[in-house]
Design a protein that fits this description.
This protein is mainly alpha-helical. It is about 60% helix and about 5% strand. It contains 24 helices and seven strands. It has a three-stranded mixed sheet with strand order 4-6-5, with helices on both faces. A two-stranded antiparallel sheet has the order 1-2. The two termini are about 30 Å apart.
Length: about 600
């Protein structure tokens, strides 16, 4: 299935030659020296700095970030590639602990910077600090939620062996279990990545077996996962109250550089548009010859092209051509990712589940991890992650390190757009209505998941915190009820669910991340924003290209609303999100025309 001529494991030698590379120790020594110097130079003095001195201080922070960044990146990548490797575990643990020590020592920096801006907010717009204007605006927004230095250090320390450990437990559980799945009638023992890849298999019985095996085993350990999630949520409620957040979601709004009213409008619009998604699901049931969909049919490939498989080389060629059709130079980053072997695509036991793209700032590039099983969905996932790499390529060449901390609602822009570029190519080159139908269904499957199913995850998380506020105990049954209730607000009676699917929440890594609550709504935001952006591209054609590159190059130096202005889009308008829903509906209409 995978190309034999392409070693689909990444080459990390641009970072380090191995976990025992002496350069790792050297980098740690140099990073430690930078922390020593920074602390000696700035502790207790930041609140008295002039704009020029503050500029020097911020540049020193960025120097440390560049020095320590490669070590942190490398340790996380080797661990993600094989979570069963003792060497990788030891290195990752060592660097995590070192990062915590550095974080504790540098906690004073953000506190003193916040105090400076609170007393002298005019610094934010000082010409000397123009490169850091929006960074300082984001720091200023957090000032009232800062604690004392000792408290901040204690939170860093308690997270290290607290909620971080729950996150590691959930991830290790998934990637150190095997699942017995009946594949075309033959029983096989598979890793999570391999079993998960069968959820979109062309054979319905295989899909059912994969679903029941994965979620059945997860459900058996439901008390473990509910204990983890219950403690994470309660921990966050306590931290939120200490930080004087108005709600458990407020920190997420600050992280994402957005406002509650914008997200409220988004969620209301999605709930109003849920009938459109159900309309598509009923249509898909007809395509599959079913009275109604089972949960294992939601992302099923259609008959006729369901056996379609891609080698990794074929996926590469398709994606390069898709990006090049938009603009030849826009595909430079994609070509480079393949040429420099920055992608790990081989499914294997012990490899982290899912897919991600990690920014490699010093290399002006990125690294991608994915378990590529040769399906059309896998090709779209690769196109998505290469969109992230393209975003990293543009902003790392235009911005300093403090300006590449892109909020999630912006971070998904190039990735979702990359999926649409691939869809454009596949639809243009489709040789029959059967192929066009397959591509349109995959587009709607992915967008339906990101827009509607992920909205249910937001409601689920809101329900968890509402329960805690009402002093209710989050046992396994209660959490599952919250999950199915939120899920059914989207699907209604259009889908029949296996009982095992009540445990679906257990495998979502986002709920276990330390200090990162409400991870999901940014994906809904990004999907609808990019759909509106895509419509503008279809209208403007090549005139749109430089605007889009400018938006990606901005990194986090501009707010999401300012980036929207660059593209002539305003998410603050209450009915803005209806535009994205209309694009989704237009794909359904294109599908209906084929019928």
């Amino acid at each position: 299935m995978l190309s034999e001529c392409y070693p689909v494991v990444w080459n990390l030698s641009d970072l380090f030659c191995g976990v025992n590379d002496s350069k790792i120790s050297q980098a740690i020594v140099e990073a430690t020296s930078l922390v020593d110097d920074f602390e000696a130079r700035y502790r207790g003095k930041i609140s008295d700095l002039t704009p020029v001195e503050l500029l020097n201080c911020l540049e020193a922070v960025e120097k440390f970030s560049r020095q320590f960044g490669d070590v942190g990146l490398y340790s996380s990548l080797v661990f993600a590639a094989d979570m069963t490797s003792l060497e990788a575990q030891v290195l990752n643990d060592k660097i995590d602990k070192l990062g915590v020590r550095f974080g504790k020592r540098l906690a004073f920096y953000r506190l003193e910077l916040g105090a400076l801006l609170k007393c002298k907010p005019e610094f934010i717009c000082d010409p000397v600090l123009v490169n850091y204007r929006h960074f300082l605006e984001r720091v200023y927004r957090r000032v009232e939620h800062q604690l004392s230095e000792v408290e901040e250090q204690l939170i860093i320390e308690k997270d290290q062996f607290g909620v971080n450990a729950w996150e590691e437990l959930q991830s290790k559980w998934l990637n150190t279990r095997t699942f017995e799945v009946s594949v075309l009638g033959e029983k096989k023992r598979l890793s999570y990545g391999e079993a998960n890849g069968l959820l979109s298999h062309f054979d319905r019985a295989t899909r059912e077996s994969a679903n029941r095996s994965i979620y059945g085993l997860l459900g058996e350990d439901g008390e473990i996962f509910s204990s983890a999630l219950r403690n994470i949520c309660n921990d966050w409620v306590a931290v939120s109250k200490h930080r004087k957040y108005l709600s458990p979601m407020e920190s997420s709004l600050i992280n994402n550089d957005t406002e509650q009213s914008i997200i409220d409008n988004l969620l209301v619009s999605i709930e109003r548009g849920v009938k459109t998604y159900r309309r598509y699901l009923k249509l898909k049931a007809k395509f599959l010859g079913l009275t109604s969909l089972g949960n294992h049919d939601i992302i099923a490939p259609l008959q006729g092209v369901s056996e379609l498989k891609f080698t990794f080389d074929q996926a590469r060629d398709l994606i390069v051509r898709a990006y090049s059709r938009f603009d030849f130079d826009y595909a430079v980053a994609v070509r480079e990712m393949f040429a420099k072997r920055r992608i790990d695509a081989a499914p294997r036991f012990g490899k982290r589940n899912g897919a991600f793209c990690a920014n490699y700032y010093n290399g002006k590039s990125a690294y991608i991890l994915q378990s590529f099983n040769g399906t059309l969905s896998d090709v779209f996932t690769l196109a998505h992650e290469l969109g992230h790499a393209t975003h990293d390529w543009y902003m790392s060449r235009s911005q300093t390190p403090l300006n590449v901390n892109v909020p999630s609602i912006v971070a998904e822009t190039a990735s979702i757009f990359g999926e649409l570029l691939l869809a454009d190519l596949l639809l243009a080159e489709a040789k029959s209505d059967v192929e066009r139908r397959a591509v349109l269904c995959l587009i709607l499957d992915e967008a339906g998941m990101t827009t509607f199913q992920v909205t249910a995850r937001v409601w689920f998380e809101q329900a968890l915190y509402n329960s805690i506020e009402q002093d209710k105990f989050l046992d396994y049954t209660t959490i599952c009820n919250h999950w199915t209730t939120a899920r059914d607000r989207i699907f209604g009676d259009t889908v029949i669910w296996f009982p095992e699917m009540e445990a679906e929440w257990t495998m979502k890594p986002h709920y276990y991340m330390a200090n990162y609550r409400f991870y999901n709504y940014p994906y809904v935001y990004a999907q609808m924003f990019v759909y509106s952006l895509y419509e503008r591209y279809l209208t403007e054609g090549k005139l749109f290209v430089p605007k889009f590159k400018q938006a990606l190059s901005a990194g986090s130096s501009l707010s999401p609303l300012e980036i929207g202005q660059t593209l002539q889009l305003n998410p603050k308008t209450p009915d803005f999100w209806n535009g994205g829903l209309k694009v989704f509906e237009n794909f359904i209409k294109d599908l209906e025309k084929i019928i």
